[in-house]
Amino acid sequence: MAARRVGAGSWQRVLSLSRRCSVPGGGRGCYRCSSSSTALGKTADNAEVAQEEIVLPRRKTWDKLAVLQTLASTVKRDPTAAHYMFPDDPYLMPKNAANFRLFALSKESGKNAAKFIINQFPEYFDKISVEPDVTCFMPEILTPQIEGVSEEALKERIHLRRVKESVDLFDQLVQAGTPVPLETTNRLLDLLCFYGESTQEKEEQAKKEEAKEDLEEPGVNASEQKAPKRQFRRGLQSSGPRWRENNNAERIFKVMPERNAHSYCTMIRGMVKHGAFVKAYDMYIDLLNERHKADVHTFNALISAVPHLKDRFLERWELAKDFLNHMAQQEVQPNLLTFNAVLKTLRRCGGVGRSMSLLVIKEMEALDIEPSLATYEHLLFMFYRGVELHPSGIISEVLDDVEKRSFTPQDPDDANFFNTAMQACCDLKDIKLAYRLNKAMENGDNWKFLSMDRLNIYWSKFFSLLCMMEQIDVVLKWYKEMSCSLFYPSPRNILELLQALDAANHLERIPSVWEDIKQMGFHRRPELLDELLSLMSREQHPDEIQQAFAKCAEDIKAVHEQSGREQAPLKWTGSTVGCIALLFARAGRTQDAWNMMERFQQINRIPTDQVLDGFWNCAKQTNCPDEAIKLVKLAASLGLPASQRLKSRTEKEFELSEKQKKTLESIQSDSDSDSDSDSDHE
Amino acid sequence: MAAPAVVRALRALPHIRPVLGGSRCLHSTPPCLKARAARVRVGKGDKPVTYEQAHGPHHIAHRKGWLSLHTGNLCSEPGAAQRAVEDAFVRRFLRGTFPGALLAPLVLRRRGRALLVSALLGRALPPAQLLFLQGYAEALLSALYRSPVRIELLTVPAPPVYKHL
User: Is the CB of residue A130 less than 8 Å away from at least one CB of chain B?
Assistant: First the structure.
């Protein structure tokens, strides 16, 4: 069924070859034999038709991945499955965000360990030759092959990103008197400015994978589309080594016999990257004095350095405008990153920034540059994350644009867009905007901007907003669909869910939430346990719910009593003990309840009035005067002021036998004598 | 004549097969009786045995499947020996990589150029370590054989016992 390019005169060959003939031009599908024979008959009959031009349609070319993409579009997300990188096994699937990160990183680190061994011992891995060759499974040659002091050796070491060796070799070459051409020296300067002064081999290998030849755009596209783990390495790199005084780059720069614009530009960019902003500015002045032209990347770096050069808002804006004017004078065309750098600077310019940013956007439109997600992120940050929220329609306009397009990564700051936008929606407490943002994220390739960590933060915020603003059944629907497959609720999210359940009066769902809490591993968090217990024990509930609550209480009790190998045992608090006791009592498990009440003595706390009253009510309901008397005795022994009240209630509302009345009386006398001694130790 | 003495001696040691009328060599390999291959001997009833172990090799294709699936053994297909060697290596390698955690022999399948390994593991190690070893083994074996190797893990709390022998 392959589409074959059939010439105009070879209809007969098409017929004879197979029953199912394909029409030339691929995607048209199959014609049956009969139709082509009819066509043949027609052409045979009418001579005029044969003379007409048979216009063959152009062959359709499909992407290599077209079939896979089509198949993928038919499959919706499975809400019960974890991320595809994990095996489908309950033991090996992560249940909370920390585990997700741990498991994903451990798998990657396994691969890195294997790569290390493969590159360390390449002689064991190159004995097999396969047809066709698969280069990604072959060991990489990371050691320099060319020995000796020569320019080729220097070039090779630069190519392999070996900073220290390159510098040493360069020094040797200079001392030997060999002239090193400008091109190679520039490349060496590029290397030094990119890496700063880091001489760690590991980091060099990591950078090698990220951006091989492209020192101009430091690995922007590569970083977004590779595994999300790379984001962490990038973060480490940006707060990396600082620019030392008179380091290798500066030294080589000074001894260079001739310098061109590229040398100055590299130095400026390196200085800005590693934090030597004032030096970068001075270098730029030198460049201007030498009558060179800077390129657009240098200008981008300089503009992004502006907040570090000036302090006051207006001065910063003036300096940025200066740089832009220079760009215009030197006829350097600004690109997207230029404008993003301007906006990044304006971010730190307060009110001036806000007013100027819209002008910058207009300028971008005038130059026909499509804004990227980073542009919008800077805008939203300026307008919505400041101290005072200025009401403006910016966010809906931004969302209008973002919804329509599918973005490609062009700026490292693109990745922050969705989180900033979601934060803005939360601050504005607008759920409709959040839904729109969600849809925009699912549009095309936009979901790729959210890496592992960022995804969780994004969904966490979205879930908080849902719990605040939406009806409980919508919240529960999202919870069921998303939790443990798309995002892992944080303890704060669970607290908000519990509060939403409380607000909607759906407390019977609490036992299932407790099951989820246990599964996620948050069952030792005191704030969650407190919230759960207080919600469960606040009111009386129908019987089966009460039984379920009692079971939860029992689990919580077990959690407190169990002491793990590495975890400190959870401490009992007064409220916990009281709530658990109350829940047991209400479910009719009186023995367990009394065990809990006795614990009060152990932990040196007293039960609250609510607990005592609740207990007393249970005793009343089950019509057990003994229980009531026991309670009064306990209250008296702890020296509580409520004991009097309870005692009088017991006398009035229970029908007591003689023996019981006597016991009650005796308690009173005890309490009178005890209260004096108890009051001073309480 | 030594013949009756030899015959009597041989009857006493039935596991040595005589070479009739041939040279008198020394057997230096251990005896590998086909009647005892791949079978777990019946014991007192306290030995737990999986389904795969409980059935002997004559049950393959009747009650058992194969542990290694490839097309090398079909008529006029090349590479049977290479596949066998690769299988043996992969089994040993993974047995050493997951120390004490493999509960059943690996099932190796080849699809095109890719090798799919299905492993049944016990929960001896924490999940992060198991995933580390999985990533490591996949990358190393892929580089060794220059073809994609995928390892599918399944963990069970205890080895699945079929019966006790």
Answer: yes
